[in-house]
Amino acid sequence: MPKHQLDFSKPPVLPETLEESHALILKLWGVIAELQAWKEDLEEQLKTGSDNSSAPPSQDSPKKRAERKRKPATGRKKGAQAGHQKHERALLPEDKVNTIKRYYPDTQCACGGIVRLDGYRRHQVFDLPEVHYTVTEFQRYTGQCQCCGQRHTAQLPQSVPKGQMGPGLIAWINLLNGRYHLTLRQIEDLLSEQWNLQFSLGAISQSQEKLNDWLLPVYHQIGEVVRQADLGYADETRHYRNRSTYWLWSLSTPQAAWFLIHYSRGKGAAKELLGTFDGVLVTDRHGAYNDYAADKHQYCWAHIIRNLEKIAQRHGRAGKDGQKLLRLARLVVRNGKRWQQSDYQSLHYRQRLQKLRTTFEKQLQQTALIHGKNKTGNSCRKLLKDSPRLWTFLEHPGIAMTNNAAERSLRPYVIWRKISFFSQSHRGTQYRAMILSVIETCRRLGINLYQTLRTICTQGITQGQVTFRLPIPEQKSLAGVAS
């Protein structure tokens, strides 16, 4: 709001002298200038969206969604194009087929000749069987000593579950909840409809409590692996526990992803996430990561471009300078991609990137000098301060210029958050971090998630401890780039 407040409850006092007129004009000029600045701020807020800020696309207004840039139409029809490579289901070998039914043509042709068989054509139909649950009853016999009268009862083996759920059922429940985001009530209904099994919501929730203890060793294994990697991608998003706001942090590599839920979004939480991590870190521009060494820290260029988009949309000289910076940033990304496509062997693109770095930093300095301490100038000075973190990819091949890998690891959770009632307890919060770590790591390794969960549950029930570990391969070391 403007600082100069005019009292409209009283009739205006007209100036009587030239000096009073000049004073009133100056006062009104200040009010108009402040209103103009306030109007520009409001317009900028209305224009802010996923294309020029860190806000996710789901938070865009209907107007912003309608104005999103779309790829130009190719003019081709929808669906498969002529000449495309077919992808057909391969036939199973006969020893893998459950039932084979053979049909033969007539033995005699219409012309009177005998039909001689010389081969057959195969057609396979896949279907789902009717499913039935299995129940195993354990009977513990009792007896009485004929001498002293003491009674004796047989003991169950350690491999027998104490509850009424076996490892397959516990794994199935947590697969539907953690991977396919079904609520506990939906799982209760599905158990009844598909399996004709009646379990209460409390019993289904308790299966997660058991899995919490069994997932812990695998969860720690994933955390140790990602912290020992030479390259990691980090990001964070909101998590809600009852009415409190927490943060889900992610540290991922191409082979694994580790999640941590923390009450803070500050530097303390970032340090707890990174732990002993000493590799090259790729993040957005969130300040919590800024204590990490600048020579091993790469900022996401997609976020840089969004910030410059915001400047480029401003009026006057600020918008023109923002457009220059935006063009340079896009040139950096384009040349960086071509340098990566050359397997980092092209000296031409590396030299172009070095020249673009010099030009980009000079443009930032000029823009900061021209615009002083207003929003545009401050943004450019912040980018200049962060400049070492923009060009780390030039010294280490294999580093992506964007933080898309971390954002992709968070996307399944964001969808889960939108369709759930969040977590209601500390146990539920722990469960989400651990199950997400196992799910995303199995996905990246190409491992069957259900079989992994079933193995973990089986060991937890029969052995009391989980010795299973995920087969996570070692990440290749990053080499420096010769100047």
Task: Please give a handful of descriptors for the protein shown.
483 residues; alpha/beta; two-stranded antiparallel ribbon; 7 strands
Describe the structure.
This protein is 45% helix and 8% strand. It is of the alpha/beta class. Among the domains are: 167-230 and 421-462, no CATH class; 301-402.
The secondary-structure class comes to: alpha/beta
Mean pLDDT: 88
- Strand/helix succession: HHEEHHHEEEHEEHHHHHHH
Query: What is the count of β-strands?
Result: 7
**Cα separation of the termini:** 53 Å
Number of helices: 13
Main sheet: which strands, in order across? Answer: 5-4-3-6-7
Shape field: extended
User: pLDDT under 50 segments (min length 5)?
Assistant: none
Beta content: 5-15%
Radius of gyration using CA atoms only: 33 Å
Characterize the largest beta sheet: strand count, sense, and whether it forms a barrel.
5 strands, mixed
Helix content: 40-55%
SSE topology:
Layout: H1 18-47, H2 62-66, E1 142-144, E2 151-153, H3 167-178, H4 184-195, H5 201-227, E3 231-241, E4 244-252, E5 257-262, H6 267-274, E6 280-283, E7 297-299, H7 301-312, H8 316-341, H9 347-371, H10 375-385, H11 404-418, H12 426-445, H13 449-462
Parallel strand pairs: 3-6, 6-7
Antiparallel strand pairs: 1-2, 3-4, 4-5
Helix pairs in contact: 3-5, 3-13, 5-12, 5-13, 7-8, 8-9, 9-10
